[in-house]
Write a sequence for this structure.
């Protein structure tokens, strides 16, 4: 239970249907516990995540975004994860110009067999975003 | 556009969801959400009464959108989509909000925040359903012909099962003969049947079957397409022997002046540059090995050509490409033994051999006529040491997994040795005995008790040459003693590894192989015979080490999967594919470049992108790439995602 006043980040997760969403299912089935700050959104492929979606989430006030896809070489759609990797690398270079830390966007490859890695990643991500503090955009919008 | 009338159904799943999510509160939060006409919860939505609740609500409230908040879509998406279809809705107007695996289960201790998360997840899915279009699966043709890659025992069994079912099979084999490694073995465990007697009739049956077309000495060059419609090109390697003219007389075999180690005999014996892998090879047509042939390497030798009575030797022959169209594929590429040196400790010596070499020494079909002679000097070995787990269960020097067949094949080899040399002594160094199938444990006990083979639990630290003998230094961990044996012959139960070509093939087929090169199945427990790519199946050791009965079961399993696929008239292809707005498309071609399936092309005349819906797999990469957003991914549009993101980040308190 979140204590009053404590910062509880909102994190949006775009998880590919074949690997990371399945890993999230496995983590749940194995009753691995992680913080409930993540808002999972199932997409077909990490390569179908438009960088604009990430920007939309961040400009709307999300404190962190994670894109989860199949491990390199194992993309269900051959190469969607490589496309995602390049797009997110470019996106990160422009985040700073709008006053956002690039550490708010994570890209991780978590296979369907890696429930433990999924839950560990959620724990690490939530901790890291808590450390970064609230999305500065939220402050700007509230002026 | 009139907004959809959406019904939301929240499942308790007993206490699986209701234990850490307040389902009543979820209903309260959802029922006033825009577009939600009906919201209801029930203890088990997937049960008959639960499904009746959904049906009744669809009918009475005239719903045209359904959100099921329950377990993962991988479990019940099809259940509820079938349900709404039977009530006259389009299946794509039903979506699953996963509040069990991704909410109630990982947040067991915090009901309040888990409830908030469940509400948020449900709202995101409401937003998806709100803008989902009604879609109809596409009908695609189904070519009822199968490509089987690898003609070992797995490939042959699958080929016969499918061919007997009345469908055509294209059986491709890399080597000059079908049969695979099974043909190299001597006898089976636990019944000691002669394997040649078992396998050769199968080979002949396969070759004679009217529905099976053999392509030996051939490899898969390229594959494109999708389930029901694969386009395959095969490279038929040149054998320099005309397949039409050769009458299998075998005169050429004795004429060749070259001697090189024979692959079939694992180097224990030699063959010529023109050779038959073994006597009962199918087809019994010789091939010329271009690496060792004198003529093909600039020499003037034409010995085989001179002796051939039908002029079948053709040094001008070149590789040919054969095109085939098939509807399904089985990968049965089999195994090799661990190469090189997981075996450093064990001296490289003519009398230190691997299990397959020992099988060749044992095999009655080989040149020793059943008598066991050691390779170095032909002496009958009086002391034989078998070492198990060479390379297996040894992540530092070899592979981490257990090769599964070696415990039994070693026990069998020890027994056959004792039958051939009754006054000899056999020792087996082992880690654990794994004898977990019908009759196996009893067989091992017989080897120990009746044949007096000495089993020593421990590893061998060194094997080295000491004059006439091989000294074996090991340890017996049960007695707590060091052991030194002067052996005539040492047999290593070397680890099984996947065929070295399997990784490349997996890439061509767009299927996944693991870090060792074994092909990964769709689900290790529930879908062990399929790959994640529809229409491609697995058989035998290509997936994981297996002995004969397990290999045959898996091959028959894969065949039955294909027979059930082929029992349909045609196939349905998911309609969530890319679509191009021709008014907006400016013909830049970026979508064409980004498509991994070659599903998009530019229309030559109008310069507008065209999607081949039957080839499109629906990954969505093109929609992201399109600079003018002319390409959209059906039911995964930016409009939907924006609304989903908006509710996902809305008011986290």
């Amino acid at each position: 239970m979140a204590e009053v006043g404590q910062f509880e980040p909102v994190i949006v997760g775009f998880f590919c249907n074949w690997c990371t969403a399945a890993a999230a299912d496995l983590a749940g089935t194995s009753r691995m516990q992680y913080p409930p700050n993540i808002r999972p959104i199932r997409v077909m492929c990490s390569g179908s995540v438009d960088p604009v979606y990430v920007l939309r989430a961040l400009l709307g006030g999300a404190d962190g975004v994670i894109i989860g896809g199949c491990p390199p070489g194992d993309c269900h759609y051959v190469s969607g994860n490589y496309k995602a990797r390049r797009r997110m690398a470019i996106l990160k270079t422009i985040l700073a110009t709008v006053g956002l830390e690039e550490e708010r966007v994570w890209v991780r490859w978590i296979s369907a067999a890696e429930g433990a890695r999924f839950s560990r990643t959620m724990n690490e991500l939530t901790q890291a975003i808590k450390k970064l503090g609230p999305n500065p955009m939220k402050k700007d919008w509230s002026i | 556009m009139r907004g959809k009338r959406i019904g939301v159904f929240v499942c308790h799943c007993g206490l699986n969801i209701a234990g850490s999510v307040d389902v009543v509160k979820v209903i309260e939060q959802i029922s006033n959400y825009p577009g939600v006409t009906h919201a209801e919860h029930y203890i088990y939505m997937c049960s008959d009464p639960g499904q009746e609740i959904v049906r009744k609500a669809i009918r009475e409230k005239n719903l045209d959108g359904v959100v099921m908040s329950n377990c993962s879509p991988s479990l019940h998406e099809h259940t509820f989509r079938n349900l709404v279809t039977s009530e006259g809705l389009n299946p794509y107007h039903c979506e699953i909000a996963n509040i069990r695996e991704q909410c109630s289960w990982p947040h067991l201790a915090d009901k309040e925040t888990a409830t908030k998360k469940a509400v948020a997840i449900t709202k995101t899915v409401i937003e998806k359903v709100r803008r989902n279009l009604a879609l109809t699966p596409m009908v695609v043709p189904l070519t009822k012909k199968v490509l089987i890659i690898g003609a070992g025992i797995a490939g042959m069994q699958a080929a016969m099962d499918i061919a007997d079912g009345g469908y055509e099979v294209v059986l491709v084999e890399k080597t000059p003969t079908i049969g695979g490694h099974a043909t190299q073995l001597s006898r089976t465990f636990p019944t000691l049947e002669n394997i040649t007697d078992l396998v050769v009739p199968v080979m002949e049956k396969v070759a004679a079957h009217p529905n099976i077309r053999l392509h030996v000495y051939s490899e898969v060059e390229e594959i494109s397409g999708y389930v029901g419609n694969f386009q395959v090109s095969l490279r038929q390697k040149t054998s320099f022997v005309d397949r039409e003219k050769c009458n299998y007389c075998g005169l050429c075999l004795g004429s060749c002046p070259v001697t090189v180690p024979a692959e079939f005999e694992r180097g224990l014996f030699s063959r010529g540059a023109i050779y038959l892998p073994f006597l009962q090879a199918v087809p019994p047509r010789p091939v010329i090995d271009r690496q060792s042939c004198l003529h093909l390497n600039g020499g003037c030798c034409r010995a085989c050509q001179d002796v051939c009575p039908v002029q079948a030797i053709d040094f001008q022959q070149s590789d040919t490409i054969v095109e085939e169209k098939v509807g399904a594929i089985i990968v049965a590429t089999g195994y090799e033994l661990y190469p090189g040196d997981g075996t450093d400790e064990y001296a490289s010596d003519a009398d230190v051999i691997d299990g397959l070499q020992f099988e060749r020494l044992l095999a009655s079909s080989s040149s020793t006529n059943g008598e066991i002679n050691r390779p170095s000097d032909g002496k009958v070995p009086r002391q034989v040491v078998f070492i198990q787990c060479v390379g297996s269960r040894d992540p530092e020097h070899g592979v981490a997994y257990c090769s599964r067949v070696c415990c039994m094949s070693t026990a069998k080899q020890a027994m056959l040795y004792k039958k051939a040399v009754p006054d000899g002594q056999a020792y087996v160094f082992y880690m654990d005995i794994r004898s977990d199938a019908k009759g196996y444990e009893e067989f091992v006990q017989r080897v120990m008790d009746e044949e007096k083979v000495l089993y020593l639990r421990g590893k061998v630290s060194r094997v080295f040459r000491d004059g006439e003998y091989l000294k074996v230094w090991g340890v017996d961990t049960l007695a707590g003693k060091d052991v030194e044996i002067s052996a005539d012959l040492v047999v290593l139960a070397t680890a099984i590894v996947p065929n070295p070509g399997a990784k490349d093939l997996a890439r061509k087929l767009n299927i996944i192989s693991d870090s060792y090169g074994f092909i990964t199945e769709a689900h290790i427990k529930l879908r062990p015979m399929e790959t994640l790519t529809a229409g491609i199946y697995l058989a035998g050791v290509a997936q994981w080490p297996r002995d004969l009965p397990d290999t045959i079961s898996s091959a028959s399993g894969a065949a039955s999967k294909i027979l059930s696929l082929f029992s349909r008239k045609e196939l349905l292809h998911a309609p969530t594919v890319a679509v191009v707005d021709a008014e907006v498309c400016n013909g830049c071609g970026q979508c064409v470049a980004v498509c991994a399936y070659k599903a998009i092309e530019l229309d030559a005349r109008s310069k507008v992108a065209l999607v081949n819906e039957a080839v499109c797999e629906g990954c969505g990469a093109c929609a992201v790439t399109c600079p003018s957003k002319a390409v959209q991914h059906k039911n995964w549009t930016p409009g939907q995602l924006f609304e989903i993101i908006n509710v996902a980040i809305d008011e986290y308190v």
Summary: Chain A has a mean pLDDT of 91. The helical segments of chain A are 20-29, 51-59, 80-95, 115-132, 136-142.
